[in-house]
Write a structure and sequence with these properties.
By secondary structure, the protein is an alpha/beta fold. The chain has 21 helices and 14 strands. The strands form three sheets. A six-stranded parallel sheet has the order 3-2-1-4-5-6. A six-stranded parallel sheet has the order 9-8-7-10-11-12, with helices on both faces. Helix 8 runs parallel beside helix 11 and helix 10 runs antiparallel to helix 11. The protein is globular, with a radius of gyration of 27 Å.
Length: about 575
Protein backbone atom coordinates (compact mmCIF):
# COMPACT_ATOMS: atom_id res chain seq x y z
CA UNK A 1 0.00 0.00 0.00
CA UNK A 2 1.00 3.64 -0.27
CA UNK A 3 1.65 5.45 3.03
CA UNK A 4 1.84 9.21 3.54
CA UNK A 5 4.31 9.62 6.43
CA UNK A 6 3.82 12.99 8.19
CA UNK A 7 6.61 14.43 10.34
CA UNK A 8 7.46 17.68 12.12
CA UNK A 9 11.10 18.51 12.82
CA UNK A 10 12.32 14.97 12.19
CA UNK A 11 12.57 12.44 9.37
CA UNK A 12 14.08 12.69 6.77
CA UNK A 13 16.35 15.39 8.25
CA UNK A 14 19.67 14.44 9.81
CA UNK A 15 18.58 15.81 13.19
CA UNK A 16 15.20 15.95 14.83
CA UNK A 17 12.52 14.08 16.76
CA UNK A 18 11.62 10.46 15.96
CA UNK A 19 14.14 10.40 13.10
CA UNK A 20 15.62 6.99 13.92
CA UNK A 21 12.23 5.44 14.61
CA UNK A 22 10.82 6.65 11.27
CA UNK A 23 13.87 5.42 9.37
CA UNK A 24 13.66 1.96 10.95
CA UNK A 25 9.93 1.77 10.24
CA UNK A 26 10.31 2.72 6.58
CA UNK A 27 13.24 0.36 6.02
CA UNK A 28 11.50 -2.48 7.81
CA UNK A 29 8.30 -2.20 5.74
CA UNK A 30 9.88 -2.61 2.33
CA UNK A 31 6.68 -4.10 0.91
CA UNK A 32 4.97 -0.71 1.17
CA UNK A 33 5.63 2.59 -0.58
CA UNK A 34 6.15 5.78 1.42
CA UNK A 35 5.61 9.43 0.52
CA UNK A 36 7.19 11.65 3.17
CA UNK A 37 5.63 15.02 4.06
CA UNK A 38 8.00 16.84 6.41
CA UNK A 39 7.67 20.12 8.30
CA UNK A 40 11.06 21.59 9.24
CA UNK A 41 11.65 23.57 12.43
CA UNK A 42 14.75 25.64 11.66
CA UNK A 43 17.04 26.83 8.90
CA UNK A 44 19.87 24.90 10.53
CA UNK A 45 17.89 21.68 10.32
CA UNK A 46 17.28 22.17 6.61
CA UNK A 47 20.95 23.06 6.03
CA UNK A 48 22.06 19.78 7.63
CA UNK A 49 20.22 17.89 4.88
CA UNK A 50 18.59 14.46 4.83
CA UNK A 51 19.69 11.01 5.83
CA UNK A 52 20.09 8.46 2.99
CA UNK A 53 16.63 7.33 1.94
CA UNK A 54 15.68 3.72 1.13
CA UNK A 55 14.13 2.78 -2.24
CA UNK A 56 10.61 2.53 -0.80
CA UNK A 57 10.55 6.32 -0.24
CA UNK A 58 9.17 7.44 -3.58
CA UNK A 59 8.83 11.17 -2.88
CA UNK A 60 9.53 13.82 -0.27
CA UNK A 61 7.74 17.13 0.17
CA UNK A 62 8.89 19.67 2.73
CA UNK A 63 7.57 22.93 4.17
CA UNK A 64 9.21 25.26 6.74
CA UNK A 65 7.67 26.15 10.08
CA UNK A 66 10.54 28.46 11.01
CA UNK A 67 9.84 31.15 8.42
CA UNK A 68 6.61 32.72 7.26
CA UNK A 69 6.30 32.13 3.53
CA UNK A 70 4.12 34.04 1.10
CA UNK A 71 1.62 31.94 -0.84
CA UNK A 72 0.69 34.92 -3.02
CA UNK A 73 -3.01 34.60 -2.24
CA UNK A 74 -5.00 37.84 -2.25
CA UNK A 75 -8.40 37.47 -0.65
CA UNK A 76 -11.38 39.26 -2.12
CA UNK A 77 -14.06 40.95 -0.07
CA UNK A 78 -16.20 37.84 0.32
CA UNK A 79 -13.19 35.68 1.22
CA UNK A 80 -11.99 38.23 3.79
CA UNK A 81 -15.42 38.25 5.36
CA UNK A 82 -15.44 34.47 5.45
CA UNK A 83 -11.96 34.39 7.01
CA UNK A 84 -12.94 36.88 9.71
CA UNK A 85 -16.01 34.79 10.52
CA UNK A 86 -14.18 31.46 10.77
CA UNK A 87 -11.12 32.81 12.56
CA UNK A 88 -13.34 34.72 14.97
CA UNK A 89 -15.26 31.55 15.82
CA UNK A 90 -12.04 29.60 16.34
CA UNK A 91 -10.43 32.09 18.73
CA UNK A 92 -13.80 32.70 20.38
CA UNK A 93 -13.86 29.07 21.52
CA UNK A 94 -10.32 29.42 22.87
CA UNK A 95 -11.22 32.51 24.88
CA UNK A 96 -14.26 30.85 26.46
CA UNK A 97 -12.18 28.13 28.06
CA UNK A 98 -13.40 24.57 28.61
CA UNK A 99 -17.10 24.64 29.50
CA UNK A 100 -16.80 21.23 31.11
CA UNK A 101 -14.34 22.55 33.71
CA UNK A 102 -15.77 25.98 34.66
CA UNK A 103 -18.56 26.66 37.18
CA UNK A 104 -21.92 26.28 35.52
CA UNK A 105 -20.45 24.49 32.54
CA UNK A 106 -21.72 21.19 31.22
CA UNK A 107 -20.72 18.38 28.88
CA UNK A 108 -23.38 19.57 26.43
CA UNK A 109 -21.95 23.09 26.24
CA UNK A 110 -18.46 21.62 25.92
CA UNK A 111 -19.64 19.56 22.96
CA UNK A 112 -21.08 22.70 21.39
CA UNK A 113 -17.71 24.41 21.79
CA UNK A 114 -15.93 21.46 20.20
CA UNK A 115 -18.35 21.57 17.27
CA UNK A 116 -17.75 25.30 16.80
CA UNK A 117 -13.99 24.75 16.86
CA UNK A 118 -14.07 22.01 14.24
CA UNK A 119 -16.43 23.94 11.96
CA UNK A 120 -14.16 26.99 12.18
CA UNK A 121 -11.02 24.92 11.54
CA UNK A 122 -12.45 23.16 8.49
CA UNK A 123 -13.98 26.43 7.31
CA UNK A 124 -10.49 27.94 7.27
CA UNK A 125 -9.18 24.83 5.52
CA UNK A 126 -11.84 25.03 2.78
CA UNK A 127 -11.15 28.73 2.35
CA UNK A 128 -7.41 28.16 2.10
CA UNK A 129 -7.89 25.47 -0.52
CA UNK A 130 -10.24 27.60 -2.56
CA UNK A 131 -8.15 30.78 -2.37
CA UNK A 132 -4.69 29.21 -2.66
CA UNK A 133 -3.63 29.83 0.94
CA UNK A 134 -4.16 31.92 4.04
CA UNK A 135 -0.58 32.88 4.94
CA UNK A 136 -1.20 36.60 4.64
CA UNK A 137 -4.61 36.50 6.31
CA UNK A 138 -3.32 34.64 9.36
CA UNK A 139 -0.65 37.33 9.83
CA UNK A 140 -2.99 40.24 9.16
CA UNK A 141 -4.38 42.89 11.47
CA UNK A 142 -7.78 41.28 10.92
CA UNK A 143 -6.61 38.17 12.78
CA UNK A 144 -5.21 40.15 15.72
CA UNK A 145 -8.36 42.27 16.01
CA UNK A 146 -10.56 39.16 15.90
CA UNK A 147 -8.52 37.69 18.75
CA UNK A 148 -8.80 40.92 20.72
CA UNK A 149 -12.59 41.03 20.28
CA UNK A 150 -12.86 37.43 21.44
CA UNK A 151 -10.82 38.19 24.56
CA UNK A 152 -12.97 41.22 25.40
CA UNK A 153 -16.31 39.58 24.60
CA UNK A 154 -18.88 38.79 27.35
CA UNK A 155 -18.33 35.26 28.64
CA UNK A 156 -14.60 35.21 27.95
CA UNK A 157 -12.45 33.52 30.59
CA UNK A 158 -10.72 35.76 33.12
CA UNK A 159 -7.24 34.93 31.86
CA UNK A 160 -8.31 35.81 28.31
CA UNK A 161 -9.74 39.15 29.43
CA UNK A 162 -6.41 40.00 31.04
CA UNK A 163 -4.48 39.57 27.77
CA UNK A 164 -2.43 42.62 26.84
CA UNK A 165 -1.32 43.67 23.37
CA UNK A 166 2.00 41.74 23.52
CA UNK A 167 0.07 38.67 24.63
CA UNK A 168 -2.36 39.00 21.71
CA UNK A 169 0.49 39.35 19.24
CA UNK A 170 2.27 36.30 20.70
CA UNK A 171 -0.86 34.13 20.51
CA UNK A 172 -1.69 35.28 16.98
CA UNK A 173 1.87 34.51 15.84
CA UNK A 174 1.72 31.03 17.40
CA UNK A 175 -1.65 30.28 15.79
CA UNK A 176 -0.32 31.43 12.41
CA UNK A 177 2.60 29.04 12.70
CA UNK A 178 0.44 26.12 13.87
CA UNK A 179 -2.08 26.66 11.04
CA UNK A 180 0.45 26.93 8.21
CA UNK A 181 -0.42 23.42 6.95
CA UNK A 182 -3.80 24.88 5.89
CA UNK A 183 -2.04 26.75 3.07
CA UNK A 184 0.03 23.83 1.72
CA UNK A 185 -0.64 22.23 -1.67
CA UNK A 186 -0.35 18.71 -0.29
CA UNK A 187 -4.02 17.71 -0.59
CA UNK A 188 -4.51 17.35 -4.33
CA UNK A 189 -4.64 14.22 -6.50
CA UNK A 190 -0.83 14.11 -6.79
CA UNK A 191 -0.41 14.46 -3.01
CA UNK A 192 -2.09 13.04 0.05
CA UNK A 193 -5.25 12.31 -1.93
CA UNK A 194 -3.31 9.53 -3.69
CA UNK A 195 -2.17 7.66 -0.57
CA UNK A 196 -4.00 4.81 1.10
CA UNK A 197 -3.17 5.87 4.65
CA UNK A 198 -1.72 8.92 6.42
CA UNK A 199 0.61 8.06 9.29
CA UNK A 200 1.52 11.03 11.54
CA UNK A 201 4.72 10.47 13.52
CA UNK A 202 3.45 12.83 16.24
CA UNK A 203 0.38 14.81 17.19
CA UNK A 204 -0.24 18.53 16.86
CA UNK A 205 0.94 20.33 13.74
CA UNK A 206 2.45 17.16 12.24
CA UNK A 207 -0.95 15.43 12.28
CA UNK A 208 -2.84 18.44 10.91
CA UNK A 209 -2.08 17.62 7.22
CA UNK A 210 -3.46 14.12 7.82
CA UNK A 211 -6.55 15.59 9.44
CA UNK A 212 -7.08 17.83 6.40
CA UNK A 213 -6.47 14.94 3.97
CA UNK A 214 -9.19 13.02 5.78
CA UNK A 215 -11.50 16.04 5.57
CA UNK A 216 -10.91 16.65 1.85
CA UNK A 217 -10.58 13.09 0.47
CA UNK A 218 -11.46 10.62 3.24
CA UNK A 219 -7.94 9.18 3.62
CA UNK A 220 -7.73 7.36 6.99
CA UNK A 221 -5.35 8.76 9.60
CA UNK A 222 -3.06 6.91 12.02
CA UNK A 223 -1.41 8.95 14.79
CA UNK A 224 1.66 7.71 16.70
CA UNK A 225 2.80 9.56 19.80
CA UNK A 226 5.80 8.51 21.88
CA UNK A 227 5.72 11.89 23.62
CA UNK A 228 2.26 13.47 23.84
CA UNK A 229 2.35 16.77 21.94
CA UNK A 230 -0.01 18.53 24.32
CA UNK A 231 2.03 17.49 27.36
CA UNK A 232 5.17 18.76 25.65
CA UNK A 233 3.48 22.11 25.08
CA UNK A 234 2.60 22.40 28.77
CA UNK A 235 6.17 21.61 29.82
CA UNK A 236 7.91 23.94 27.36
CA UNK A 237 5.97 27.14 28.08
CA UNK A 238 6.06 27.60 31.88
CA UNK A 239 7.41 31.17 31.69
CA UNK A 240 4.81 32.53 29.26
CA UNK A 241 2.20 35.02 30.58
CA UNK A 242 -0.97 33.41 31.97
CA UNK A 243 -3.13 34.66 29.09
CA UNK A 244 -0.76 33.20 26.48
CA UNK A 245 -0.53 29.87 28.29
CA UNK A 246 -4.30 29.65 28.67
CA UNK A 247 -5.16 30.47 25.05
CA UNK A 248 -2.49 28.24 23.53
CA UNK A 249 -3.36 25.38 25.87
CA UNK A 250 -6.99 25.71 24.76
CA UNK A 251 -5.97 25.62 21.09
CA UNK A 252 -3.68 22.61 21.41
CA UNK A 253 -6.22 20.81 23.58
CA UNK A 254 -9.01 21.35 21.03
CA UNK A 255 -6.74 20.34 18.16
CA UNK A 256 -5.61 17.20 19.99
CA UNK A 257 -9.22 16.21 20.71
CA UNK A 258 -10.14 16.65 17.03
CA UNK A 259 -7.12 14.65 15.86
CA UNK A 260 -7.84 11.82 18.29
CA UNK A 261 -11.52 11.86 17.39
CA UNK A 262 -10.98 11.69 13.61
CA UNK A 263 -8.04 9.27 13.60
CA UNK A 264 -8.77 5.68 12.66
CA UNK A 265 -6.31 4.52 15.34
CA UNK A 266 -3.95 6.17 17.82
CA UNK A 267 -0.79 4.35 18.88
CA UNK A 268 0.79 5.61 22.13
CA UNK A 269 4.25 4.30 22.93
CA UNK A 270 3.49 3.55 26.57
CA UNK A 271 0.77 3.60 29.21
CA UNK A 272 1.87 7.03 30.43
CA UNK A 273 1.22 8.56 27.00
CA UNK A 274 -2.00 6.56 26.72
CA UNK A 275 -3.39 8.12 29.91
CA UNK A 276 -2.67 11.61 28.54
CA UNK A 277 -4.45 10.76 25.30
CA UNK A 278 -7.50 9.43 27.11
CA UNK A 279 -7.59 12.59 29.22
CA UNK A 280 -7.53 14.64 26.01
CA UNK A 281 -10.54 12.82 24.58
CA UNK A 282 -9.12 9.78 22.78
CA UNK A 283 -11.52 6.84 22.56
CA UNK A 284 -10.13 3.75 24.32
CA UNK A 285 -11.34 1.58 21.46
CA UNK A 286 -9.01 3.44 19.10
CA UNK A 287 -5.87 3.11 21.22
CA UNK A 288 -3.17 0.52 20.49
CA UNK A 289 -0.04 0.67 22.64
CA UNK A 290 3.07 0.04 20.51
CA UNK A 291 6.42 0.36 22.27
CA UNK A 292 9.19 2.09 20.30
CA UNK A 293 11.41 -0.25 18.38
CA UNK A 294 15.15 -0.01 19.03
CA UNK A 295 18.11 -1.70 17.39
CA UNK A 296 19.58 -4.18 19.87
CA UNK A 297 22.54 -5.19 17.66
CA UNK A 298 24.98 -2.45 18.80
CA UNK A 299 24.53 -3.57 22.42
CA UNK A 300 24.73 -7.34 21.85
CA UNK A 301 28.42 -7.72 22.65
CA UNK A 302 28.13 -5.81 25.92
CA UNK A 303 24.90 -7.55 26.85
CA UNK A 304 26.47 -10.96 26.42
CA UNK A 305 29.42 -9.97 28.64
CA UNK A 306 27.78 -8.30 31.65
CA UNK A 307 30.86 -8.72 33.84
CA UNK A 308 32.98 -6.36 31.70
CA UNK A 309 32.08 -3.21 33.68
CA UNK A 310 33.91 -1.74 36.66
CA UNK A 311 32.02 -3.07 39.73
CA UNK A 312 32.53 0.23 41.61
CA UNK A 313 31.35 2.60 38.84
CA UNK A 314 27.96 4.22 38.37
CA UNK A 315 27.09 5.45 34.85
CA UNK A 316 24.67 8.13 33.72
CA UNK A 317 24.07 8.44 29.93
CA UNK A 318 21.89 10.98 28.15
CA UNK A 319 21.45 14.59 27.06
CA UNK A 320 22.56 17.07 29.70
CA UNK A 321 19.63 19.37 30.54
CA UNK A 322 17.81 20.50 33.70
CA UNK A 323 15.05 17.89 33.31
CA UNK A 324 17.64 15.15 33.90
CA UNK A 325 18.28 16.50 37.44
CA UNK A 326 22.01 15.79 37.60
CA UNK A 327 22.16 18.04 40.65
CA UNK A 328 20.21 15.48 42.68
CA UNK A 329 22.43 12.73 41.30
CA UNK A 330 25.58 14.56 42.43
CA UNK A 331 24.17 15.06 45.92
CA UNK A 332 23.17 11.39 46.00
CA UNK A 333 26.69 10.40 44.98
CA UNK A 334 28.07 12.41 47.89
CA UNK A 335 26.07 10.09 50.17
CA UNK A 336 27.20 7.03 48.21
CA UNK A 337 30.88 7.97 48.69
CA UNK A 338 30.39 7.96 52.44
CA UNK A 339 29.27 4.32 52.28
CA UNK A 340 31.44 3.17 49.34
CA UNK A 341 34.67 5.25 49.24
CA UNK A 342 35.94 3.51 46.09
CA UNK A 343 32.85 4.28 44.00
CA UNK A 344 33.03 6.51 40.94
CA UNK A 345 30.43 8.31 38.79
CA UNK A 346 30.73 8.80 35.03
CA UNK A 347 28.38 11.36 33.49
CA UNK A 348 28.39 10.69 29.74
CA UNK A 349 26.46 12.95 27.39
CA UNK A 350 26.44 16.18 25.43
CA UNK A 351 24.55 19.32 26.51
CA UNK A 352 21.20 20.02 24.84
CA UNK A 353 21.48 23.56 23.44
CA UNK A 354 22.53 26.70 25.27
CA UNK A 355 20.45 25.85 28.33
CA UNK A 356 22.09 22.43 28.53
CA UNK A 357 25.57 23.95 28.23
CA UNK A 358 24.87 26.32 31.12
CA UNK A 359 23.47 23.45 33.18
CA UNK A 360 26.55 21.33 32.46
CA UNK A 361 28.78 24.17 33.69
CA UNK A 362 26.74 24.37 36.87
CA UNK A 363 27.06 20.59 37.42
CA UNK A 364 30.82 20.69 36.87
CA UNK A 365 31.16 23.45 39.45
CA UNK A 366 28.99 21.52 41.93
CA UNK A 367 31.05 18.35 41.43
CA UNK A 368 34.27 20.27 42.06
CA UNK A 369 32.77 21.65 45.25
CA UNK A 370 31.35 18.35 46.55
CA UNK A 371 34.37 16.23 45.62
CA UNK A 372 37.69 18.05 45.90
CA UNK A 373 40.43 16.32 43.94
CA UNK A 374 41.74 13.40 45.94
CA UNK A 375 45.42 12.41 46.02
CA UNK A 376 47.11 9.33 47.48
CA UNK A 377 50.14 11.25 48.71
CA UNK A 378 51.75 14.64 49.10
CA UNK A 379 53.43 14.55 45.70
CA UNK A 380 50.70 12.96 43.53
CA UNK A 381 48.03 14.55 41.38
CA UNK A 382 44.50 14.45 42.70
CA UNK A 383 41.58 12.84 40.87
CA UNK A 384 37.90 13.74 41.07
CA UNK A 385 35.61 10.69 41.42
CA UNK A 386 33.08 12.35 39.09
CA UNK A 387 33.95 12.62 35.39
CA UNK A 388 32.04 14.42 32.62
CA UNK A 389 32.52 12.88 29.17
CA UNK A 390 30.91 12.65 25.75
CA UNK A 391 30.33 9.69 23.46
CA UNK A 392 32.92 9.63 20.69
CA UNK A 393 35.92 10.42 22.86
CA UNK A 394 38.94 8.13 23.32
CA UNK A 395 37.54 6.54 26.49
CA UNK A 396 33.94 6.24 25.24
CA UNK A 397 33.94 5.59 21.48
CA UNK A 398 30.30 4.39 21.36
CA UNK A 399 27.11 4.41 23.42
CA UNK A 400 27.54 0.70 24.15
CA UNK A 401 31.01 1.42 25.58
CA UNK A 402 29.42 4.02 27.86
CA UNK A 403 27.13 1.43 29.43
CA UNK A 404 29.92 -1.15 29.50
CA UNK A 405 32.12 1.09 31.64
CA UNK A 406 30.11 0.60 34.83
CA UNK A 407 28.14 -1.92 36.83
CA UNK A 408 25.03 0.19 37.56
CA UNK A 409 23.23 2.64 35.25
CA UNK A 410 21.40 5.53 36.89
CA UNK A 411 18.50 7.62 35.58
CA UNK A 412 17.74 10.67 37.74
CA UNK A 413 15.19 12.56 35.60
CA UNK A 414 12.27 14.58 36.93
CA UNK A 415 10.55 14.57 33.51
CA UNK A 416 10.71 11.66 31.08
CA UNK A 417 8.59 10.28 28.30
CA UNK A 418 9.76 6.92 27.02
CA UNK A 419 13.23 6.38 28.58
CA UNK A 420 15.30 5.31 25.58
CA UNK A 421 18.54 5.34 27.56
CA UNK A 422 17.02 2.97 30.08
CA UNK A 423 16.15 0.48 27.32
CA UNK A 424 19.70 0.72 25.96
CA UNK A 425 21.03 -0.11 29.43
CA UNK A 426 18.68 -3.09 29.56
CA UNK A 427 19.96 -4.31 26.18
CA UNK A 428 23.44 -4.17 27.74
CA UNK A 429 22.34 -6.34 30.66
CA UNK A 430 22.92 -3.63 33.25
CA UNK A 431 21.20 -3.29 36.61
CA UNK A 432 19.49 0.11 36.83
CA UNK A 433 18.36 2.62 39.43
CA UNK A 434 15.72 5.03 38.08
CA UNK A 435 13.35 7.72 39.26
CA UNK A 436 9.63 7.04 39.01
CA UNK A 437 8.74 9.37 36.12
CA UNK A 438 7.06 8.93 32.75
CA UNK A 439 7.04 5.34 31.49
CA UNK A 440 9.98 4.19 33.65
CA UNK A 441 8.03 1.69 35.77
CA UNK A 442 6.31 0.30 32.69
CA UNK A 443 9.65 -0.18 30.91
CA UNK A 444 11.52 -1.62 33.88
CA UNK A 445 8.78 -4.05 34.88
CA UNK A 446 10.54 -5.24 38.05
CA UNK A 447 14.01 -5.64 36.54
CA UNK A 448 15.51 -2.60 38.27
CA UNK A 449 15.18 -0.37 41.32
CA UNK A 450 12.85 2.66 41.18
CA UNK A 451 12.90 5.59 43.61
CA UNK A 452 10.94 8.86 43.88
CA UNK A 453 12.24 11.81 41.84
CA UNK A 454 14.12 14.67 43.55
CA UNK A 455 15.09 12.36 46.46
CA UNK A 456 18.91 12.08 46.63
CA UNK A 457 18.82 9.97 49.79
CA UNK A 458 16.58 7.29 48.23
CA UNK A 459 18.68 7.34 45.06
CA UNK A 460 21.86 6.87 47.11
CA UNK A 461 20.45 3.98 49.15
CA UNK A 462 19.35 2.11 46.01
CA UNK A 463 22.74 2.57 44.35
CA UNK A 464 24.61 1.42 47.46
CA UNK A 465 22.41 -1.67 47.68
CA UNK A 466 23.38 -2.72 44.14
CA UNK A 467 27.06 -1.81 44.48
CA UNK A 468 27.29 -4.10 47.51
CA UNK A 469 25.46 -7.06 45.94
CA UNK A 470 27.04 -8.29 42.67
CA UNK A 471 24.79 -11.37 42.50
CA UNK A 472 21.67 -9.20 42.63
CA UNK A 473 23.13 -6.93 39.94
CA UNK A 474 23.68 -9.94 37.72
CA UNK A 475 20.13 -11.25 38.22
CA UNK A 476 18.54 -7.88 37.53
CA UNK A 477 20.75 -7.26 34.50
CA UNK A 478 19.91 -10.62 32.93
CA UNK A 479 16.19 -10.12 33.54
CA UNK A 480 16.36 -6.59 32.10
CA UNK A 481 18.08 -7.79 28.92
CA UNK A 482 15.53 -10.56 28.41
CA UNK A 483 12.65 -8.11 28.86
CA UNK A 484 14.12 -5.57 26.46
CA UNK A 485 14.73 -8.18 23.75
CA UNK A 486 11.15 -9.37 24.10
CA UNK A 487 9.36 -6.01 24.07
CA UNK A 488 11.47 -3.20 22.67
CA UNK A 489 13.16 -4.39 19.48
CA UNK A 490 12.76 -3.00 15.98
CA UNK A 491 11.26 -6.26 14.77
CA UNK A 492 8.46 -6.10 17.34
CA UNK A 493 7.65 -2.51 16.39
CA UNK A 494 7.63 -3.15 12.64
CA UNK A 495 5.42 -6.24 12.95
CA UNK A 496 2.92 -4.28 15.03
CA UNK A 497 2.63 -1.43 12.53
CA UNK A 498 2.38 -3.81 9.58
CA UNK A 499 -0.69 -5.36 11.19
CA UNK A 500 -2.12 -1.94 12.08
CA UNK A 501 -1.76 -0.73 8.48
CA UNK A 502 -3.70 -3.72 7.20
CA UNK A 503 -6.34 -3.33 9.91
CA UNK A 504 -6.98 0.34 9.08
CA UNK A 505 -7.13 -0.16 5.32
CA UNK A 506 -9.46 -3.13 5.72
CA UNK A 507 -11.92 -0.97 7.68
CA UNK A 508 -11.67 2.26 5.70
CA UNK A 509 -14.66 3.25 3.51
CA UNK A 510 -14.72 1.58 0.10
CA UNK A 511 -13.63 4.08 -2.53
CA UNK A 512 -13.77 1.85 -5.61
CA UNK A 513 -16.17 -0.67 -7.11
CA UNK A 514 -14.81 -4.08 -8.14
CA UNK A 515 -16.92 -6.05 -10.63
CA UNK A 516 -16.78 -9.68 -11.67
CA UNK A 517 -17.09 -10.94 -15.28
CA UNK A 518 -20.88 -10.60 -15.12
CA UNK A 519 -20.64 -6.95 -14.06
CA UNK A 520 -21.85 -7.60 -10.51
CA UNK A 521 -20.21 -6.00 -7.45
CA UNK A 522 -17.56 -8.23 -5.88
CA UNK A 523 -17.08 -7.48 -2.14
CA UNK A 524 -13.49 -7.68 -0.89
CA UNK A 525 -12.28 -8.10 -4.47
CA UNK A 526 -9.10 -6.14 -3.78
CA UNK A 527 -7.85 -6.88 -0.25
CA UNK A 528 -5.01 -4.95 1.34
CA UNK A 529 -2.74 -8.01 1.05
CA UNK A 530 -2.77 -7.78 -2.74
CA UNK A 531 0.21 -5.40 -2.78
CA UNK A 532 3.28 -7.65 -2.51
CA UNK A 533 6.57 -7.63 -4.40
CA UNK A 534 6.65 -9.58 -7.68
CA UNK A 535 4.46 -10.09 -10.74
CA UNK A 536 0.94 -11.52 -10.71
CA UNK A 537 -1.20 -13.05 -13.42
CA UNK A 538 -4.11 -10.99 -14.74
CA UNK A 539 -7.11 -11.21 -12.39
CA UNK A 540 -10.54 -12.23 -13.54
CA UNK A 541 -12.05 -9.06 -12.12
CA UNK A 542 -12.01 -5.52 -13.43
CA UNK A 543 -12.00 -2.39 -11.30
CA UNK A 544 -13.77 0.89 -11.87
CA UNK A 545 -11.54 3.49 -10.19
CA UNK A 546 -13.27 6.07 -8.06
CA UNK A 547 -10.26 7.75 -6.54
CA UNK A 548 -9.39 4.62 -4.60
CA UNK A 549 -6.10 3.22 -3.32
CA UNK A 550 -3.28 3.28 -5.81
CA UNK A 551 -2.05 -0.19 -4.85
CA UNK A 552 -5.24 -1.79 -6.20
CA UNK A 553 -4.58 -1.04 -9.87
CA UNK A 554 -0.81 -1.03 -10.25
CA UNK A 555 1.99 1.36 -9.51
CA UNK A 556 1.00 4.57 -7.67
CA UNK A 557 1.38 7.90 -9.45
CA UNK A 558 4.38 9.73 -8.02
CA UNK A 559 4.10 13.32 -6.90
CA UNK A 560 5.70 16.02 -9.00
CA UNK A 561 8.37 16.59 -6.35
CA UNK A 562 9.62 13.01 -6.36
CA UNK A 563 13.15 12.48 -5.12
CA UNK A 564 15.12 9.52 -6.51
CA UNK A 565 15.99 7.09 -3.75
CA UNK A 566 19.58 6.92 -4.96
CA UNK A 567 20.10 10.60 -4.30
CA UNK A 568 20.68 9.98 -0.58
CA UNK A 569 21.61 12.82 1.72
CA UNK A 570 21.64 16.28 0.25
Amino acid sequence: MRIGLLTEGGYPYVSGDARLWCDRLVRGLGQHEFDVYALSRSEHQEAEGWIPLPPQVSSVRTAPLWTAGDDGAVLGRRARRRFAECYGDLVGVLCEGDAGEVPGGSEESSAVQADRFTKALYGLADLARGEGGLAGALRSETAVRALERACRAPGAARTAREARVPDLLAVAAHLERALRPLSLDWYEDDGLAAVDLCHAASGGTAALPGLLARHFTGVPLLVTEYGVHLRTHYLTSPDAPPAVRSLLAAFHGRLAAEIYGRAALVTPGNTHARRWQERCGADREKLRTVCPGMDAAPFAEVGESPECGDPDTLVWVGRVEPAKDLVSLLHAFAEIRKEEPNSRLRVIGAPAGAEGAAYLGHCRALAAQLFPDEADGLHTVGDNPVSFEEVGGPDVPSVADAYASGAVVVLSSVVEGFPIGLVEAMFCGRATVSTDVGAVVEVIGGTGLVVPPRNPRALAEACVALLRDPERRARLGAAARARALELFTVEQNIAAFHGIYLEIVSHCPVRRVVLDEAGEPLPFGVPAEVHVPGRWTAPVTRALSRGGPGWATGRPVHTTSAVPATEGAR
